[in-house]
Structure formats: C-alpha cells, structure tokens
Amino acid sequence: MSSQAELDKVIRSEYEAGFTTLVESDTLPPGLNEDIIRVISAKKEEPEWMLEWRLEAYRHWQEMPEPGWAHLNYPPVDYNSISYYSAPKSMEDRPQSLDEVDPELLETYKKLGIPLHEQEMLAGVAVDMVFDSVSVATTFKAKLAEAGVIFCSISEAIREHPELVRKYLGTVVPKGDNFFAGLNSAVFTDGSFVYIPKGVRCPMELSTYFRINEANTGQFERTLIIADEGSYVSYLEGCTAPQRDENQLHAAVVELVALPGAEIKYSTVQNWYPGDENGKGGIFNFVTKRGVAHDNAKISWTQVETGSAITWKYPSVVLRGDNSVGEFYSVALTRHAQQADTGTKMIHLGKNTKSTIVSKGISAGRSNNSYRGLVRMGPRAENARNFTQCDSLLLGDTCGAHTFPYIESKHPSATIEHEATTSKVSDDQLFLCRQRGIDPEKAISMIVNGFCKEVFKELPMEFAVEAGKLLEVSLEGAVG
Amino acid sequence: MLEIRDLHAAVGGKAILKGLNLTVKPGEVHAIMGPNGSGKSTLANVLAGRDNYEITGGEALFEGKSLADLEPEERAQLGLFLAFQYPVEIPGVSNMEFLKAALEATRKAQGKEEWDSVTLLRKAREACKQVNLDAQFLKRGVNEGFSGGEKKRNEIMQMLLMEPKLALLDETDSGLDIDALQTVARGVNSLRGPERGIVLVTHYQRLLDYIVPDHVHVLSNGRIIKSGGKELALELEDKGYGWLTGEEGESA
User: Fold this and answer.
1) Closest CA to A343 of A292, A401, A425, A428
2) A9 falls within a domain
3) What is the pLDDT of residues A413-468, one digit of tens each?
4) What are the beta bridge partners of residue A377?
5) Which of B41, B53, B73, B80 to mutate to test binding with chain A, by most A CBs within 10 Å of its CB?
C-alpha cells in the first residue's frame, strides 16, 4: 500500500464523542434581541448591573463588523437562527449532590471518560461541568473552601461574589474587544469562576468539561480566573460535542488575572466535533482568551486542539508588570476539511518581560492549519525577550500549513527570536518503523506524538496522557 | 530460509534487478559486493519492502512465503531485519519507546514471550554496551542528532535486541572509522548462529576482514555474475571489479 493510501486510511477515523444525550431541555426560541438578553439575565437571577452590562455589550456588538482577516473560509453565520439559552430541564431544581444529578447526564460524562464518582475518590481533580449552559455539579468545594479558593460557575459568582466579578469582569477582554467577545458579553450563559487568595497554592488541579448537547444551540461560556498576589493555580479545560450535520457556534471568552507574583497555568484539550470528511457539520469555534500578568507574575497557556470545523483562537498574554512571564504551548491538529487559524499574542509592556511561544501544527486530509502570532515590544519594555518556535507537520499532500508571524518592537534593547520549520512525515520514517514490525497506524501516531513532545510535557500528567490518546484516536482508523 | 529465483525489480519504474538468483541457508553469512549502481542496495530494499521498489518478475521466498505478498511490517514480524544505509531521524520519539513498539510487535507475532519494561531496559542496556553506545542514547530521539557512526551502531543495537532470523546489512560499514567498524563487526558476529542468516551488502572488502563470510557474490548490472568463498573478496580487493564486469576504471 502506498504511503498516501495509508495516510488516507488512518486519518479517516470516526468521531468518538459523537453521541447525543436525551434529556428534556428548557430552550429559548432562536433569535437575538434585547428581550432575549433580559430573559437570560432573569433566568440566571442576575443583579441589575449585570443586565446593563450585557445590554451595553449587545448594543455595541450590533455596530461591529465580523472579522474577515483570518485564513478561514466559512458560510456567514445567521445569528438570529441560534438559540441563546438551553438548560437541561431537570436542572430547574438544582441538585444538592451528585446523587441528585440526572443519571442520563452522568452517563454522558461516563462515555466521555469522566467517571465522576471515581474522580471524587481518586486523587484530587475538582470538576465543574458545564452541560449546555448550566453547571451540573461541582465537586471538592469543601476542600477548596478550606484553602479559601472560590471555584464555582460564573452565574453563581455573579450572585455570591459580585464585588470580585464586578471588579475584574471585562478588564482583560473588554466587552467591545472584538465581534465574538462582544457577542459573548451580551449572551454568555455560564462558565467557571476561580479566585485564589493571596499566597495560596491551589491544593488541586481545577478542571472543567464543557459540552454542547442541544442541537442548534450556541454555547457562550465565560471564564474568569483571578490569582491574587503570590498565588498559584493550574486549570484544565476539556471540550467535546456531539456529532451533528448542522454547524454549531461556540464563542467563549476566558479572562485571566495574575496579580503580582502569581502564576496561572491554563491547559485546554479541545475535541469539539470537527465535521465529517466532506466538511459537513462541526463546531465553529471563535474564542477569545487573554491574561494579564502583573509584576513578577506568570501566565502559561497550553492547548491541544484537535476538534472544531473552524478554529479562531489566540490565547494571549499582556505582560503588563515588570519581570512578568508569558508562555504559549500549542498543538493544533486538523484533518478532513477542518480549518484552524490559531496562535497567540504576547504584548510586552513591562521591563525584563519574557515570553516563549512553541506552536506545533499538524495538517492532514484537505485541511488548512495556520499559525498567527503577534509579538509586540512596547516603548517601556526594556530588555524584553521573546522566543518563538513554530513547526508544521504535513501528513499527505492535499493539506496546507501557513505561518503568519507579526513582530513589532518599540524598544531597542528587546530581543526577539523566531524559528520556523515545515516537515512531512517522510516515507523514510514510516518505512523505518514498518521495517521494525510496527504497523503504519501506530507508526504515524508515534511520529506525530514525538513531534508534539515539547508541548505535551507542559501538560499536567493526566492531561498529557489524554492528549496523547486523543491524537492517537484522531489519527488511527479502527482503534477505539 | 531465503530463496531468490530469477528476481526482476524496478525502482520508480526503472529496471534495476534483472534475473537475480540467491539462496541463503540458516547459519550462513553471505556478502553481496559490486560496483556502485549494480543493484546491491536495491536488493536489500526490495527484500524489506520499501515503497517504489517493485518486484516485476521472478520471486523471493522467505521462510517459504513470497515476500511480494507481505507488507513491510509483516516481513519484519517474520524475522527479516534491515540495517539501513542511511538511518533516518524520528524527532521526539525516544529510542526506548521505539524499541518497545518494535519488540512488542515482532515478539508477539513470533510467539516469543513478551518482555516487561524492566527486562526490556536491561536487555537494551546490554545491547548498547555491546556496540559501545552510552545508555543515555536510549532516552534520545531515534537517531536524533546522532553522528553517522552512532546511527550505524544504533542500527546494530536494534538488531541485537530484535534477534532476527535474517539480517540484511546495507553498507553498514560506510562512513565508519576502524574502531567503529570493529565494534559493529563484533556485534554482528555475536549474532552468528546456526539458526540465523546474514546478508552483508558492501562495496569494500575491509568489513569482511572482521566478519568473515561463507559466500561472496559479485553483483553487476542487476545479476550475480560470480560467486565464491571468502577468497573472492580478497581477489576483488586486488583486481577491482573491472576484470569481472569488463569495464575499465572500476576499482575497489
């Protein structure tokens, strides 16, 4: 069999999380106007200031053009055909413990490989799950509360911790930041909120699984993480969505605030439904993620992106404080007709700021994979340093890899290094593996995993294993 | 164990092997020599099943099975090993990880007992020692940043661990200094045994000072034009290939 045929075979694997859960839902009719926003706000029992904030965002959003600069090609989204709120009905009376959670929902999570009850017993990952728009269950709250850590849904935080939310919401990603962030600000339904008090090292990894279930439902989650002075938190985010023929919209906003001396490590494994071989269906993923690092603070983004029909995502760090550090480690895999335009922005404002960018793009099938990254050294950024490494790997010869680096330096003492490579899984590498008895599927997944090693080693242990498996599933044909 | 009859093969459509006959029995060491472009490496690659190396006529049987019907990994699982002339790098995949995958696949197919990771590590360290490679090389990416000599020794290290029935060595001596050549030869010699066949493809006689073959064949223009014992190699050392191929200017 020729290498091309081998590749075709292994990249044509099935989407593993493609099942739909039958739960009765409370879903708003499609369409977007001020009344819809009022209903969302009312359903979430929000205070008046929150509703005003949403309405301002909505009014501003209406004036904004949809960005067209990305290397992406997709049909226009009809924002009036989307339903902006969906909650599983059995959630009307919020469950007080896991035992009260709809067993079908729990079954869904089991299929996704998140056995909650087991997780409770196993060493410390607290999971705040977002099922469509409402948080289903939050575990480990007690232990976190002991450390003074607040980890809850953003809706709960708006009700219970309004002073923190008001102080920081929209300070990193303003509501008028960009088209998709504007839309999110108007209609966001849920998401996570984290606050780590001064000097506290969060006693466990915090983790959220988001899942879009209801057909024709946009998911607009909003996450806000505040690490107070000298604190540390590692946050994990995993995403999957059921398989549907129509496209679904996902426009999330994540804001990170690392106060002086704090460190936030944010890891994502994204496996939204990518659409079928011919590009039918799949998630449109338009995400704004940004963090602000104050003096001596550090923000590290690690992402493994294998899903979504369209990915538009640039987790960024504003290095506002002196000696602050920003990192971006990314693996983006596209196959079939997937399109990804992803990268980062490192905005150096403070002195002696340092950023590292390691991006690994893997393209297969007829997909297009673009890295887009901005490194900006501001006029005060004395001795600022950036290192960027940007590698692309092509599987077969019908896919595309593109690199769009932007570099702006307004300080003469700044150092910027950029390295970029493009390579193919060579016939020679494949032949060496096969000559040693290794079947081609295993060989390709091994070679691709090797290519991603620098990024995987940045992931927390359990996620690194998951990411490796995900790549394997995305690449291997029959293995399930 | 290896039976090649009237083998014709083409590389990317160009005929290279034109009626080659060769029989290798268990326990034998054969050297295939010949001028550049005579088809030596083609033979090794055809037997191992590289893409674009096509059998166009005749047959090659390994353990009674037609190689043409087998995928490269199936040939390897049957016990056919090729030590590459130009070992390729696989960045980020550690030697150890690679060996584990290879040994799992082949030992299982051969009905051999599987090695647990402790046994594998011990065996791998021993093999490294045999070819004078620091055990640190097990942690590094396959051939990643290795020198030419280290790559060749890495091939032999893999061969020692995989214990193939038939080992094909494609110009393993090229680019080696005399110390490395002796190390490699010691490794190969340690594998010699009544159950195992070894085919050395080489341009030069000097490897055969250290690995003494039972049979020497001269390949020219896709055919074996002369076969003999180890003394044939010495004769070639003296006279070059010209007196056999009828061409001027060829010398070893």
Assistant:
1) A401
2) no
3) 999 999 888 887 788 999 999 999 999 988 988 998 899 888 888 887 767 777 77
4) A348, A409
5) B73
- Which pLDDT score is estimated for A477? 42
pLDDT computed for residue A120 by the predictor:
41
User: Quick check: helix, strand or coil at residue A353?
Assistant: coil
User: How many contacts, defined by CB atoms under 8 Å, are there between A and B?
Assistant: 81
pTM score, whole prediction: 0.79
Of B51, B89, B102, the CB nearest to A2: B51
Chain B residues with CB inside 8 Å of A442's CB? 101, 105
Q: Answer yes or no: do B102 and A451 touch at CB < 8 A.
A: no
Whether residue A124 is predicted with pLDDT greater than 50 in this model: the reply is no
Give the Cβ contact number of residue B70 at 10 Å: 16
Second CATH level (architecture) for the domain B2-251? 3-Layer(aba) Sandwich (3.40)
Q: Which residues does residue A192 pair with via DSSP β-bridges, in sequence order?
A: A153
Give the Cα separation of B44 and B199 in Å (integer): 9
ipTM associated with this complex:
0.94
Contacts 24+ apart (CB under 8 A), A94-102: A95/A136, A95/A137, A98/A137, A98/A139, A101/A136, A101/A137, A102/A23
Query: Residue A428: which of B75, B88, B92 has the nearest Cβ?
Result: B88
Q: Is residue A34 part of a domain?
A: no
The total number of structural domains that make up chain A = 1
Query: Does residue A42 lie in a domain region?
Result: no
Which residues 401-440 in chain A show a CB within 8 A of chain B?
426-429, 431-440
DSSP code of A64?
P
Distances (CA, A) of B45 to A277, B34, B42, B203: 35, 16, 5, 16
Q: Is A282 left (phi over 0), alpha (psi -120 to 50) or beta?
A: left
Contact with chain B for residue A49, Cβ under 8 A: no
Residue A275 lies in a domain: yes
- Percent pLDDT > 90 in chain A is 43
- Domain range for A260 is 104-424
Among A393, A435, A458, pick the best mutation site for testing chain B contact (most B Cβ within 10 A): A435
